[in-house]
């Protein structure tokens, strides 16, 4: 919990411009230049290609405009990039690539509401061209969760994270930590307890466990803190720190007999780090 939020810093990967099998030779060369980030070369060559008759076909024109938009994005010409990408969408609405690039433009400009609306519209969006790069379902949900996090739409965040990873045990620890943060933000002690039980077992040492569990104490959730310190003490049965924490929490939550039993195990030193 001491590190920054995963979702706060998460961005979807940019399209790779790799599906060139069915592109013509000139477009293929242009996309390869995009991959090499030869942005100015892309823009110079693209200008001459725009007038070619074959570029009037919606798929080819959209592929060309996407390359131009990506090149502008690489140069940080965000307004010009957005113009190219919106022209691409006008030429070929049923594609993911232009929208993915537009979402990135909005993100770097901190236009999170616009990025959220763009990505939300992509749910169940068909992908027609052979060169397109639709997101996986997991990627789409993570992208939505990240944007909802920046917009402080906490309920939406939880919905998308759980849709991306229905089984908590298969969820990356960084996302588990974000769901714990979410439970604190939404004042949901039961949800926080469930997530902390998973995180506790993944902490590398006693200090990391204590740091995690102290967030419950600071939140004033003494019952949940007491349950978690029982789990921590089982993991570290020689820990005087955890025994001392548990005695105090047992007394505060009414588990007096448990506190007495723990206290009888040995003198509790006051020199232990608080």
Number of structurally distinct domains: 2
What value does the Rg take, in angstroms?
A: 26 Å
What share of residues is helical? 55-70%
Percent of sequence in beta strands:
under 5%
Which secondary-structure class do the elements indicate? mainly alpha
Number of strands: 0
Q: Biggest sheet, in brief?
A: none
Q: What kind of oligomer do you see?
A: single chain
Order of helices and strands: HHHHHHHHHHHHHHH
Mean pLDDT over the full residue set: 93
Q: What is the rounded distance between the termini?
A: 18 Å
The CATH class assignment of the largest domain is: Mainly Alpha
Determine the CATH superfamily of the largest domain.
Answer: Tetratricopeptide repeat domain
Protein name: Tetratricopeptide repeat protein
Organism: Rhodothermus marinus (strain ATCC 43812 / DSM 4252 / R-10)
InterPro entries: TPR-like_helical_dom_sf
